Structures are given as structure tokens and as C-alpha cells.
């Protein structure tokens, strides 16, 4: 089934809700098409297209809830899915944290749909891969890459009159280029709404340059270094931190956002005063669905950190009621305000430091201090007197993003990256005293 | 709007755990109903195989799957979620013009199946244009009509939800009564009803069961602002609900109670609550070199990351270069026949038949009868994990039988088999091992883990750490993580306890591939000693 229009989606949702005999009901309709192509060893390995449209219906009897899903939309099917949700609700245990289903909401209007991505063909996908493979062969390196594109819609409605519709497109391309001797590796990403703005050949060139430059890396002693972290190196650490911006775990005393003696750290200055992180579904660089998937709460522009001060934490409707605060839905995008310098300019102003292309395999070590560990990968270089001098072996880091965001020296121009399943605008950061704890032989 | 749906579990401490959730949500009663009739499946399969051949395929296989999942999710004295899912469909894989093609459909009508068969063959022919290395498939003799089932005593899907909820409430109460501030506990159940048929003449019916019962206990000291968690020591298993019987003969009394083939979740939750509180005031470790004594509940994850993954042939060859990475264990090292992966005490083997393990099946997802084989023998690298279209690259004639797809809609590819450390040949208990350690740390349970993309440098945490001084355990320490290099670490292995201590651990959601697929895999070992490993102190202070 193709992408449904606003009116087609509304017709199905209205119909399914009419079948409800429950106290309250809600329905989510979503779907579209995802295409992908994968290649390795300079040859296409797999490609595919998946089409799916699915309706999820929730029925409520008091604090009992049941959810059922279906991917057929005949009248009989719509009635069946509602009956099934009602049957499941009656059988389920009461959820003491259940909150009433929402009535009408006002959602922001977001334009995140690009025709070029909607109309992508298998030939275009093959060409995108071929552009990368040809570039690799020319420079005698080995390409492995993956392109995934999506055109999708989502619509929501409740028995209390709520309705929302959003259509979106996205395409994400990643590529790893390795030298044939196995001594060099480079990586690049392109994350876009509009496929026409994606150039897999030029992304591949960036990765090829890094692969060629990163050969014969020298070993530097682990320790504290000034680093220039490219946006993809920053995003892994930032994603972990912002996933912990949760009021409940903070109020319960089990988060780096917990306050000694009880409560949370909203209002405290925890970061460098230049740190400003917010979400905005209508941001033109990273347009996002204007409601939260969990409970359909409207997404609006909201600051998480401003002037280095914690401004907001996400808070479910249940926890908002318990803690007598406003509920704050989980965001669908993130924007960190940066500076006006390119990564090259950040390097130019660095006397001694390490340039990090990306960070990898990041895991929590201590949730108390948000200490994370992970590794640098696919292009790590030594900077001296404003210039890249030579490639260095990859490092393992043990660092907290809270400390990282206190040690900012300078910030670059934000770029769009994929982060924890959403899109984000993240700047390159120049950070002092970043802790590398050991060396890795990995290329 | 992500293609893969996730079950979102908030409130489980920092962040949000995301569980893969596939299939349609259904009523609990659906999970105990039987699936598609065997004769119907054979009829469908023959239609697909014959028409694929007619369309020009030189080989075809078809998998008709019914995948059932049940998740029960609780915190403290509340049930947060009960999710039942069912997913039914067919995946068709063919070779045409020397190239793989794949298509999947949940439209199990004559027309739907015919359409998917045509798509699979057409995809193979289209991709043949880019093919540089035509598929070479290791031969498999047809098995005829055969079947296999996970040897379970109690089908977990048939246990009423109420009984499962009662169990988790008892577990949670036990932790709260013992002083836990919070507990999150869960039950995950999987039943894969898989039918495989191929042009080799195999018709294989399999009924695969898996179960996992994890929890996480948190102790908070509101005065100091400190908090600590202790996760449950249960292991995901290829067993029925009997795993949760917690039989006395399966318990090992150590610093905490350790478990063999069954698990006492309530007891472990009580101990976890006590230990989480003890962790709040435990001594912070002094960094330096220590001899590590690693319990199987911990060592499985180190085996998984530093042996299981680097010895997957697709990683070695570069097929995963853009995502999970490649491997340090390159073909030239293997070909030399002298690559010392570990000390001569180290014997690591792959196994797809071990009872109770997550990876145990009768046949893999391309119709190869499963078995076991050596990976590292007396410390030397001797083999990899490879499937039908890979083994020729090793000069071998038979597939190892470790091909797997996580759904009917996913294409099967090489996945990790159970990979385990053989017990020591000489009689040795854990007490005997500890007695000879002058300066060491005994580690129980898996914690934080991170390893580079070629599997050299790693860092692991744990759940419980006990300091060993002059042959005696002297008390709990905290803030422990060890760092090493795979080859150095396994060459530092000086002792492995005997088979009396052998136990399985494992991972329920191992991820690989683009688009990503999950897989479940077990790793067995006895307690083992590693000398002179670098331990770091992970305590940091925020302003």
C-alpha cells in the first residue's frame, strides 16, 4: 500500500474507532516503504524493499488496556482488530500508572517530505552504490556501504477527538573505505530528508581520503588530550547523555540528574555556559514528527540545556501527576547550537591535539557519573601547530559527556547526523582533557 | 516510523531499554494454538521449489515460519506490560545466474507465494550484473522429512499469564523486603516454529524454545546521592519453564548463589538487594595488575566478544566492515597453523547441539545438520564459523551449520554458534584456584562491555567484584573494569576449573547485519584464571 493521504488515513481511523465498545480507545496508523542496498568488497551483496502499513488499536476499560495490530483495512478487519483489543484489555491486569487517553491536541505543521526520496527507484539505489564502488576502485581501496531510504506516514486518533497526520521521507548512507593492505580505514555518513541532496560519491571521497591518510598510524601514549571531535564523534556520547534526561529516574535517585538529598538537577548549571541543546520538530534541518509516539503528546520547541543550565527533563504524564509538574514528552530530534567554524578551522587553532572522526561501541560504565567507554575509529590523527601531522592508533576512551561538555574550548558548525534512531544537528567540538585510557590495534 | 518496532521500557534506570518486537500483537490464547498443518506446508514448499526451478533457479530453499513471543514486564509491585506477538510468513531464497535472490511474503495464498517466488528469482538475475564472485554452495544431502524440538519439560507459552505475574511479583517483593529501592523484572519467551524445504530434498520441521528471566535491582542512598544496581544472574536458555524451578542440586554456594541448569529468581533477587546495598559502601578498587578469577556468569560475555565474533568468517572477509567491523583473526594467521590465540590451556569450540543452549537446533536455516567443531585447539587457531557459501574459501567441503534468520522475512546468513571454553582436564575447584592467587579479583556476572571493530582492545565490567589477597577472598570492591587485548588475555589464561564447574551463559539479543537482525547464543565455561590483567578504577566525580 502506498502512503495514505491525510483524508484516507482519517477515514480508516474514524471507522475503526466507531467500532469501539470500550470506555476509551485510540488508534495509530502508520506505514510506507523502506528500500535498501548493501555492498562490501566492492560488490553489491544484498538489496531489498519492504512495504508495510499497520494499524494499532488500544482499547481501555478503566485502568485495563489492550493493544492489537492488523495490516488489513476492510470493514470486517477493522471491527476484528477493535474486538481483539477489547478482549485483550479485559484479560489484562490493571496498570496503576495508566493515564486517560488524550482529547484534541494542536500539533505543529512540519514539512519533512521530499519528492525525490518518495520517488526513489531501484536503479537510483544501484547507482548510489555504484558511485561509491567506482570511486573506491579508482583509488584502489575497498568499499563497504549501506543506503536505506524511507517514505512513510503516521496518523493518530482517539475516541475523544484527537487527530494528527504526518508524512516524512529520509535517507541514510554510511560507507567504510579500507585500504587493500588493511592499514587504513575511513568512514563517512550522509543523513538527509531529500535524496536529491545526497551525493554518495562525494561522501565516499571523504572516506577514501581518510582511509589513505590513516595508514601507518603511530602509537601515542594514552592520557588526557585536547581533542577535535567531529560531529559523529560527539553524537555517540551526546545520545547517551540525553537518553538520561528523564525526570522520573532523576527523582528516584538513580541518575546523574539526581540531586543529593532528593529531587533532580533542573535549574543547575551543569555544563559550559555555551552549551545550548534543544528539540524542535519544525527545524528545517531535522524535521520530525510533531507528537510523541508513546502518548500522542504534542512536540514543541523545548530547551534541554541553555546557557549551561539544565532546563527540562522528559516526564511521562503519570510522573507529572505524581510529582505535580508538567509532562514533557520524549523528543523526536535534537539540536545542539554550535559556532561558526569549520572542522578545518578548529584544527587550525589547535596547538596540540587529536582529531577524532567517529566514536564506536559506546557503553555505560557508571550511571552515577555517566562515565562511558568506547573507541575512536576510521580516522584518528595527531594535530600540531594547527595541522594534521600524522595518523595515530585508535584509542579507548573513558569519559563522561557531562565532563566533556564542561571542557569545551571551541565549537564548529552543526551538521546533521543520525543519533539513536533520530536525526540530530551536532557541531564538531574542541574539548580539553579528554581521557584516553588505552590503545587499540584496530584499523 | 522505524521499520523495526520496539517495545519501549522506561523507568529501568538511566535511559530506555529497547526490545525488538516483531509480529502482530495477539491474545495469549493464540500462543498455545497449533500453527499451519504440516501437509499444507509441504505442498506450498513443493510449489515454490518447482516454480523456482522452472524460472531458472539452480537452487532454492523456502522457510515457512510461525514466530511467537511473549514479554511480561514489571517494576516493584506493578505489571507494566504484557505483550504477545505472532508472525507468520514465508521466505524464499534462490540462486540464479550464480547469484542469491530473496523475497518474503505473509500472503500465504497460491498467488502470493508465486509472486514472491518470481521476485526472488528476478532479484537474483538483476543482482547478477554486479556479481564478481559467483556463489559456490557446499553440497548437502537431502534429509527427507525430519523434525527436531528443543528438549523442554514445560512449554512456557502454556503457563498462564497469571502464574508468570505471580512469580514476578514474588521476585519483586523479595527484593523490596530485602531493602531494594527499586526492581525491574521481566520474562521473555520465544517459540520459533520453523519449516524448511530445499531443492536438495530436505523437509525439516523444527520447534525451538527459548526463555530469559532478567531483573535489575537498584539501591539508593538519598543522603549521599549514591546509587548502585545489581542485575540478576539468570542466563537466557534453550529450555522450558522448568528453568525457573530453582532446584537445590543446581545451586552453587559461593560469595553469592550461582546457578547451573535451573534458576531460583526469588532467591537471587533477595541476594541482589542485599548486595546492591553492600556495593554502596564497598571499597573502591586500587587500579593495577591483578590475577582475575572469572565466573562463567561473567566469562561468557568475554568469550562472546573476543572469540565468537572475531571467528565469524563473514567479518574476517569484510562483509561486515561498514557496521560491526572486521577481525584481527585474519586468514593468513589461520593458514600459518601457528597462531597462538591463547595459552595451551585454552580450547575453544563451536557447538550447535549442546542441550539447554540458545543456539541448539537439529538443522540450521539452510538445511545443514548441526554439530560441533574446534575453533582454538591447545591455544592455536584452527577454524572459523562458516556456512554453505563460505566454506570453500577455507578449502573445506562441508558447511559448519550456523546459518540463521531471525524471521521468515529476514534472509538467512552466517551467525555465531554457541562458542565455549572447554573445562580443564585436571581436577580443579574454584576454591583450589583462589588458594593460589596472591593479588586478584573474583568477578561474578556480566556488566559493561566494549570492544573495538577488529576485536583487539576490550573493556569489561561485572556485577560483583571480590578482592583476593594471599589466597583468600577479603571482601567486596567496586568501580572495577578490566582492559586487555584479545590475544594477550587468552594467552594469560593459566588455569581452567574442571567440568564440575561448567555452566552456560548467553545473549538473547546479539545484533548483526544491515538491516540488523538479532540472534540468541550461549557460551559455556568453567571458572578460569587470567594472570596480570590491567584493572582500572571507574569512579569519577561530577561537579
What would your notes on this structure say?
The complex is a heterodimer of chains A (443) and B (543). Chain A has 443 residues and is α+β, with helices and mostly antiparallel strands. Chain A folds into two domains: 206 residues, PmbA/TldD superfamily (PmbA/TldD fold, 2-Layer Sandwich); 227 residues, no CATH class. Chain A is built from ten helices and 19 strands. In chain A, the strands form three sheets. In chain A, strands 3-2-1-4-5-6 form a six-stranded antiparallel sheet. In chain A, a hairpin with a 5-residue loop joins strand 5 and strand 6. Chain A is globular, with a radius of gyration of 24 Å. The two termini of chain A are 44 Å apart. Chain B is an alpha+beta fold and 543 residues long. Helices cover 20% and strands 37% of the residues of chain B. Chain B has nine helices and 31 strands. In chain B, strands 14, 15, 22, 23, 24, 25, 26, 27, 28 and 31 form a ten-stranded mixed sheet that branches. In chain B, strands 3, 4, 5, 6, 7, 8, 9, 10 and 11 form a nine-stranded mixed sheet that branches. A four-stranded antiparallel sheet of chain B has the order 18-17-16-21. In chain B, strand 5 and strand 6 form a beta hairpin. In chain B, helix 3 runs parallel beside helix 4. At the A-B interface, strand 1, strand 2, strand 3, helix 2 and helix 4 of A face strand 3, strand 5, helix 2, strand 11 and strand 23 of B.
Mean pLDDT of chain B: 93
The counted number of beta strands of chain B is 31
- Average of pLDDT of chain A: 95
The share of residues in helices of chain B is 10-25%
Amino acid at each position: 500500500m502506498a502512503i495514505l493521504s491525510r483524508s484516507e488515513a482519517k477515514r480508516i481511523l474514524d471507522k475503526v474507532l466507531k467500532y469501539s465498545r470500550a470506555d476509551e480507545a485510540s488508534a495509530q496508523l502508520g506505514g510506507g516503504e523502506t528500500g535498501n542496498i548493501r555492498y562490501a568488497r566492492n560488490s553489491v551483496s544484498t538489496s531489498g524493499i519492504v512495504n508495510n502499513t499497520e494499524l494499532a488499536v488500544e482499547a481501555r476499560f478503566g485502568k485495563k488496556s489492550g493493544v492489537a495490530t492488523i495490516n488489513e483495512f476492510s470493514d470486517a478487519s477493522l471491527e476484528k482488530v477493535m474486538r481483539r483489543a477489547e478482549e485483550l484489555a479485559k484479560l489484562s491486569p490493571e496498570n496503576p500508572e495508566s493515564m486517560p487517553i488524550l482529547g484534541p491536541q494542536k500539533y505543529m505543521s512540519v514539512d519533512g517530505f521530499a519528492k525525490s526520496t518518495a520517488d526513489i527507484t531501484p536503479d537510483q539505489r544501484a547507482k548510489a552504490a555504484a558511485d561509491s564502488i567506482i570511486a573506491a576502485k579508482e583509488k584502489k581501496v575497498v568499499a563497504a556501504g549501506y543506503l536505506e531510504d524511507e517514505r512513510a506516514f503516521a496518523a493518530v486518533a482517539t475516541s475523544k477527538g484527537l487527530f494528527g497526520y504526518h508524512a516524512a521521507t529520509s535517507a541514510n548512507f554510511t560507507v567504510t573505505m579500507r585500504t587493500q593492505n588493511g592499514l587504513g580505514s575511513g568512514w563517512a555518513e550522509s543523513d538527509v530528508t531529500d535524496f536529491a541532496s545526497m551525493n554518495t560519491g562525494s561522501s565516499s571521497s571523504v572516506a577514501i581520503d581518510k582511509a589513505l591518510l590513516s595508514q601507518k598510524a603511530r602509537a601515542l601514549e594514552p592520557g588526557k588530550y585536547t581533542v577535535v571531535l567531529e560531529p559523529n564523534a560527539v553524537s555517540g556520547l551526546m545520545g547517551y547523555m540525553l537518553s538520561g534526561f528523564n525526570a522520573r529516574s532523576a527523582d528516584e535517585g538513580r541518575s546523574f540528574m539526581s540531586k543529593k538529598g532528593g529531587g533532580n538537577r533542573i535549574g543547575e548549571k551543569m555544563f559550559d555556559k555555551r552549551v545550548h541543546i534543544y528539540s524542535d520538530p519544525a527545524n528545517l534541518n531535522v524535521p520530525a514528527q510533531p507528537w510523541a509516539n508513546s502518548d500522542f503528546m504534542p512536540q514543541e520547541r523545548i530547551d534541554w540545556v541553555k546557557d549551561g543550565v539544565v532546563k527540562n527533563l522528559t516526564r511521562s504524564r503519570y510522573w507529572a501527576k505524581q510529582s505535580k509538574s508538567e509532562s514533557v514528552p520524549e523528543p523526536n530530534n535534537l539540536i545542539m547550537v554550535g559556532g561558526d567554524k569549520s572542522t578545518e578551522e578548529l584544527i587550525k587553532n589547535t596547538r596540540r591535539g587529536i582529531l577524532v572522526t567517529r566514536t564506536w561501541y559506546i557503553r555505560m560504565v557508571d550511571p552515577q557519573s555517566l562515565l562511558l567507554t568506547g573507541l575512536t575509529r576510521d580516522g584518528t590523527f595527531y594535530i600540531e601547530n594547527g595541522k594534521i601531522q600524522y595518523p595515530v592508533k585508535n584509542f579507548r576512551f573513558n569519559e563522561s559527556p557531562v565532563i566533556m561538555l564542561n571542557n569545551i574550548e571551541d565549537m564548529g558548525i552543526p551538521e546533521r547526523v543520525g543519533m539513536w534512531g533520530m536525526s540530530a544537528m551536532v557541531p564538531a567540538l574542541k574539548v580539553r582533557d579528554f581521557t584516553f585510557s588505552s590503545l587499540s590495534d584496530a584499523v | 516510523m522505524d521499520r523495526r518496532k520496539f517495545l519501549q521500557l522506561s523507568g529501568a534506570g538511566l535511559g530506555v531499554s529497547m526490545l525488538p518486537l516483531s509480529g502482530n500483537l495477539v491474545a495469549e490464547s493464540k500462543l498455545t494454538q497449533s500453527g499451519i498443518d504440516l501437509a499444507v506446508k509441504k505442498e506450498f514448499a513443493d510449489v515454490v521449489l518447482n516454480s523456482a526451478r522452472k524460472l531458472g533457479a539452480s537452487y532454492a530453499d523456502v522457510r515457512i515460519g510461525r514466530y511467537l513471543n511473549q514479554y511480561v514486564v514489571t517494576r516493584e509491585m506493578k505489571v507494566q506490560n504484557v505483550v504477545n506477538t505472532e508472525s507468520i510468513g514465508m521466505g524464499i531464497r534462490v540462486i540464479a545466474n550464480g547469484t542469491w535472490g530473496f523475497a518474503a511474503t505473509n500472503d500465504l495464498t497460491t498467488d502470493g507465494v508465486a509472486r514472491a517466488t518470481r521476485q526472488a528469482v528476478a532479484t537474483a538475475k538483476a543482482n547478477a550484473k554486479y556479481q564478481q564472485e559467483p556463489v559456490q554452495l557446499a553440497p548437502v544431502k537431502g534429509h527427507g522429512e525430519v523434525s527436531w524440538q528443543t528438549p523442554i519439560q514445560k512449554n512456557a507459552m502454556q503457563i498462564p499469564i497469571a502464574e508468570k505475574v505471580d512469580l514476578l511479583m514474588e521476585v519483586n517483593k523479595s527484593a523490596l523486603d530485602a531493602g531494594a529501592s527499586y526492581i525491574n523484572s521481566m520474562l521473555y519467551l520465544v517459540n520459533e516454529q520453523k519449516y524448511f524445504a530445499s531443492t536438495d530434498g530436505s523437509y525439516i520441521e523444527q520447534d525451538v524454545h527459548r526463555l530469559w528471566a532478567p531483573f535489575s535491582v537498584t539501591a539508593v542512598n538519598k543522603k549521599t546521592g549514591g546509587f548502585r544496581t545489581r542485575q540478576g544472574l539468570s542466563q537466557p536458555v534453550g529450555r522450558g519453564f522448568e528453568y525457573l524451578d530453582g532446584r537445590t542440586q543446581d545451586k552453587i554456594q559461593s560469595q553469592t548463589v550461582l546457578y547451573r541448569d535451573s534458576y531460583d529468581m526469588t532467591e537471587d533477587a533477595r541476594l541482589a538487594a542485599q548486595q546492591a546495598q553492600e556495593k554502596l559502601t564497598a571499597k573502591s578498587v586500587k587500579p593495577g595488575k591483578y590475577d582475575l578469577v572469572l565466573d562463567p556468569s561473567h566469562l561468557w560475555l568475554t568469550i562472546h566478544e573476543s572469540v565468537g565474533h572475531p571467528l565469524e568468517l563473514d567479518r574476517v572477509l569484510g562483509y561486515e566492515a561498514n557496521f560491526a567491523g572486521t577481525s584481527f583473526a585474519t586468514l593468513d594467521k589461520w593458514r600459518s597453523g601457528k597462531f597462538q590465540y591463547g595459552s595451551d590451556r585454552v580450547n575453544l569450540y563451536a557447538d550447535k547441539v549442546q542441550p539447554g543452549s540458545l543456539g541448539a537446533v537439529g538443522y540450521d536455516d539452510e538445511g545443514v545438520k548441526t554439530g560441533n567443531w574446534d575453533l582454538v585447539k591447545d591455544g592455536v587457531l584452527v577454524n572459523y564459523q562458516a556456512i554453505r557459501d563460505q566454506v570453500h574459501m577455507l578449502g573445506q567441503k562441508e558447511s559448519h551449520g550456523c546459518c540463521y534468520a531471525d524471521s521468515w522475512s529476514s534472509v538467512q546468513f552466517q551467525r555465531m554458534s554457541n562458542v565455549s571454553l572447554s573445562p580443564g582436564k585436571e581436577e580443579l575447584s574454584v576454591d583450589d584456584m583462589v588458594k593460589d592467587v596472591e593479588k586478584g579479583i573474583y568477578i561474578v556476572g556480566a556488566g559493561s562491555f566494549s570492544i573495538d571493530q577488529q576485536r583487539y582492545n576490550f573493556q569489561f565490567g561485572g556485577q560483583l567484584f571480590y578482592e583476593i589477597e594471599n589466597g583468600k577472598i577479603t571482601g567486596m570492591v567496586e568501580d572495577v573494569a578490566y582492559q586487555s587485548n584479545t590475544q594477550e588475555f587468552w594467552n594469560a589464561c593459566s588455569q581452567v576449573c574442571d567440568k564440575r564447574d561448567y555452566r552456560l551463559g548467553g545473549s538473547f539479543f546479539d545484533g548483526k547485519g544491515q538491516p540488523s537482525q538479532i540472534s540468541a547464543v550461549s557460551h559455556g565455561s568453567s571458572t578460569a584464571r587470567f594472570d596480570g590483567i590491567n584493572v582500572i578504577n571507574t569512579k569519577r566525580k561530577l561537579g
